[in-house]
Amino acid sequence: MNEMSVDAVDRQLVAALQRDGRATHEALAQAVGLSRVAARTRLLRLLDSGSVTVLGIVHPSVFGLHSCGHIGVRVAGAAAPVAAHIAGFDHAAFVSVVSGAYSLVVQLHCPDDATLAAEVNRIATLPAVIGTETAVYTEILKDNHVAPRRSTQTLDEVDLGLLRRLQADGRVSYAELAAEIDMSISAVRTRVLRLIETGTIHIGARIQPGFFGSNHLCGLGITFDEGRGAALATLAELPSVDYLAATLGRCDAICTLNSRSVDEALHDLETVRGVPGVRSVEAFNHLRVVKSLTSKSYSSAAQDAPAGLG
Question: What is the average pLDDT across 201-222?
Fold first, then answer.
């Protein structure tokens, strides 16, 4: 899909999907002022393009993954092949080729600190990698416009299976889910709605950088002076902030800005720089998201994870 084929209605449709990735065709039609058939056609066109995906967002601790880190990676030579290789790592939840201080960035979700350290070392010792810098997450505050929660619900294996499946495809039908786990459609629907209503999972749209023409996805490594808590709260409320995590290591927070133009990107970046308590900002532009959080990220990791749920 090219820039000319994307219009304001497509933007409205994606915005509706970010709020509720499992919204019915009727609900989406009402949100954008189209007929059900027209809304369905546009939705399929967006999804088939591969630039818009609907995925479930789950706090890593739900799967026993309690240690997370953001790795800035510098590469000698082409970065894309290295990113593709790292995307095959089970603990790599997000991999993106970027411009700026790093060649690519990686988000790791691991069961414990020892595994996180081993995975960072695994990346650092790849032949083409000439340097890495790590920020260890202490709290995920915002992910694609929602605050992911540590589940307080009692989850069984069926729940965990549904969560993994919805991470891979947030709009998979209840009929497909029922057939896969051998349960009735009504029972599956009840479970999925409970997982959504309790905040265990949020299902929303994710967009490849540049899909909406001059769309800019910019990552930030932020360092604070005093007033760290207030600054984080202010950043979380900014509409341009798609992702925000408090960290330890090379910076105090990792933030992702989603802007619609170069001018808006500059405005959003200056807004972050002007937040009271922000001392410095290191920026890197996402050029190609190679891997985003899916069930594959958790498939092997969860098998070795602690039994208790965070």
Answer: 80
